[in-house]
Amino acid sequence: MQTSPDRxxxxxxWEADVVLRDGGTARxxxxxxxxxxxxxxxxxxxxxxxxxxxxxxxxxxxxxKDVHRFTHHDFVDRVGLAATVGGEFIATVxxxxxxxxxxxxxxxADEAEVAFLVQDAHQGRGVASALLEHIGAxxxxxxxxxxxxxxxxxxxxxxxxxxxxxxxxxxxxxxGVVRLEFDLEPTDRSLAVQYAREHRAEARSVQRLLAxxxxxxxxxxxxxxxxxxxxxxxxxxxxxxxxLYAVNKALPEEQKELDGVRAHRSVRDxxxxxxxxxxxxxxxxxxxxxxxxxxxxxQGLVVVSAGYAESGPEGRExxxxxxxxxxxxxxxxxxxxxxxxxxxxxxxxxxxxxAPEVPRPGRIGLFAQSGAIGIALLSRLHRRGGGVxxxxxxxxxxxxxxxxxxxxxxxxxxxxxxxxxxxxLMYLESIGNPRKFTRxxxxxxxxxxxxxxxxxxHGAAPQGHAVRATxxxxxxxxALLRQAGVxxxxxxxxxxxxxxxxDRQPLPAGxxxxxxxxxxxxxxxxxxxxxxxxxxxxxxxxxxxxxSAADFHAALSRALADDRCDAVVVTAIxxxxxxxxxxxxxxxxxxxxxxxxxxxxxxxVHVELGGLAEALSAAASTAPQAGVDNPPQSAPGPxxxxxxxxxxxxxxxxxxxxAAEAPEDTHLIPAYPAAERAxxxxxxxxxxxxxxxxxxxxxxVPEYEDINERGAAALIDGLLARGQGxxxxxxxxxxxxxxxxxxxHRALPAPTPDAAAEAARxxxxxxxxxxxxxxxxxxxxxxxxxLDLADEDQLRRSYAELTELFGAPEELRPVVQRxxxxxxxxxxxxxxxxxxxxxxxxxLAGAASQLLGDTAHRLxxxxxxxxxxxxxxxxxxxxxxxxxxxxxxxxRALEELLLRVSRLVDDHPEVVAVxxxxxxxxxxxxxxxxxxxxxxPPPARDDLGPRTLPAY
Length: 952
Prior knowledge:
Elements: E1 16-19, E2 25-30, H1 36-44, H2 48-55, H3 64-71, E3 78-85, E4 88-98, E5 111-118, H4 127-141, E6 146-151, H5 156-163, E7 169-174, E8 177-183, H6 188-210, E9 214-218, H7 227-237, E10 243-247, E11 257-258, E12 261-264, E13 276-279, H8 286-296, E14 300-303, H9 313-328, E15 332-334, E16 340-343, E17 350-353, E18 361-368, H10 371-382, E19 394-399, H11 408-417, E20 423-428, H12 434-445, E21 450-454, H13 474-483, E22 487-489, H14 492-504, E23 512-517, H15 520-532, E24 536-537, E25 541-542, H16 549-561, E26 567-572, H17 583-596, E27 602-606, H18 610-617, E28 671-672, H19 675-695, H20 709-720, E29 726-727, H21 730-738, E30 747-749, H22 753-763, E31 767-771, E32 785-789, H23 792-806, H24 809-812, E33 814-818, E34 824-833, E35 837-844, H25 847-852, E36 855-859, H26 864-872, H27 891-907, E37 911-921, E38 926-928, E39 931-935
Parallel strand pairs: 5-6, 9-10, 9-13, 10-12, 13-14, 14-15, 18-19, 18-20, 20-21, 21-22, 23-24, 23-25, 23-26, 26-27, 27-28
Antiparallel strand pairs: 1-2, 2-3, 3-4, 4-5, 6-8, 7-8, 11-12, 16-17, 16-19, 29-39, 30-33, 31-32, 31-33, 34-35, 34-37, 35-36, 37-38, 37-39
Helix pairs in contact: 6-11, 8-9, 10-14, 11-12, 12-13, 14-19, 15-19, 16-17, 17-18, 22-23, 26-27
């Protein structure tokens, strides 16, 4: 690596792994003097046409001078980057800083010429686009603000790379050459282009893993049992449609088959490509397997082998080496320590997992970081009795294990555009990149429901997971996920409950719920549960235990036809007697009525009616099916205005329960064993449906004419010149906030009674006397505040009381402040978290709110609609709106304050923390009585930089 001859040390932080357009990976790194042979070899594999486009003339080979020039860089004015696969160059990019006259220059010149060369075999993979993002980020770091490129008109591919990047451009044509100039400052369009490319690449990389054309199981044992042999059998028994191979280096030379599957001693011995390798060998043998797979062109790995980061520091280093090794060859990894993957599509039918049977095909995408939880979820989705029952299937299932490479973010990218997935269920034990997850979750939730349960909420993440440090408590992260449209639940039972409703039924148009059934008591329980979930239930309609199937049908039809009803909960208990309704008849009556009004969701609460749950579901057994030639297609999911009826399921007769027949176009109804579970799922669907409606018009970030952004920036720059981080003094805080229209009431120090009296005369009576010592600050409940002091006598008496109660003035740090109009005390905070980003928080002031955790949060920047919802989302919000006859507070002024603080932090990321406490919101206007601001260099924002995979 270059060191002494260069002006800068080797910039290791420029190294990055990227996902390319076709789903493969490449490594981008700076070119050094050690790369001369690689550069020459790379150039020899480039076509004459591509060489001509690069140099504008025939250029068959590089001279020694060329090689020296293209491998010696100072990493400031001359920089070269290479994209590599398998350690060899597949593309290069270079910039040279130039002055106004176009000749080589140094800083402060801020323009550079840029040029690319991509090996023909790798053109069309998005390599040049990725290199442009990275060389642009490098240039900005080195003070270059603009790129210029000269391209031959016939080189349309390279012109498209520049024009599609989204930067502000200027284009000219002179002397037969197209000259492009563009600013490197990210724009909304360039970020949108970057995110779109990231989405396509990551979605494709997961698609290659979930729908391979060929699979090799490496480590399939010679004797029955064992992990590898089990996975091989599961793939075979599921009826995988592609080519399947067994690989075990211990197989005898003459053995060509294992369990009816073609067998080989090495991946290298397989004729033809292998898209996916399932690795089930001991951890110490995995590196050898990865090398063989990489050299054979395998596209991805599912590593079920254990012994990695979950086992301690040595295993963590082994895991890092595994990821680096696989990425060298452009492969992505699920795992290690993974349970496996499943794809029930009839085009694939892949069960590359330890699950002995493939689940029924359906439209739920399931992601679990834990294999044990994955088993529980699959089992709970498909069994009858003891929980939510009915035929509901899975489109794809991914258990990521230690998620060293492929994570929930990658799978979300895939599910967002997967036409076979309507509902996404995720069990997460950690969120490696909360900022990115929130962005992807918001986009996904706008198209299809996303339900998440998070484990390890009150402790450290599992050992095998690489997690970014965050200072935010779990409750705050949960609130931010809900803001992004995520349906947050607390248990896997709730995860399945919500998933089944969202998969089977349309979204409710509102919170109004009709309740009907043959049990008055069960109806009342359901009514109470609705109130507890914030729904608006109608009084339950008791059909009595004598109700027939026709009575249920008529009552449900009337409820669904009622414009005052948005959803219906049907309660049913067993009936005894000669004329009692049967399970099949009742199920048919409910399905028929529901299908006639498909725009409203219907749920059933049943008590000890196993037959009703089966009959309500679908035609077939819910047991996982294996080896089915023509798997049934389940119904499209919910996020439509109305549920579409599914085709009837038709498994083989041998697995078909005789009483489970149902006609085609059946309207599936989810059944729940308890009212609370049904209503909780309905409440989550109502909240999500409202979020979907709100997301269609998210509001805007308002402009305020009195904001002085430049003045604030100049003040911040001057203050930060003093040091890396500091908490501002009172005057500096007031000055900075004043630039954004936030006025703070002056508080004058009062170290003595005479100083207090002088301060009061300056401010004018009435005044407040406050102790600001850390243990008394913002604790009016401790008695450290005296209000409405009308004259000097009252002030001096109060001063004496405080010092007598709490100690000497130097301990109390008393201040005098002019009285503000009476109102509701609130707290506004903003903080920049290194993992989640900038967060705005709001709540009422006081110990009670802190004790109950009654604080609401939003990601910055906050829109006007989000500010309105923020104020109303805390449980104590009624105090702001005239609770029990009190005067309503000026919430418009409060919302404007929230928006101004949001703008301050968004415009100036150096403002890493703001606290306004207390803010007294009166009937007209508000008063900020206390404020603190902390400045620091902002945390690095990788979401604004070039696309990269997490570093290992």
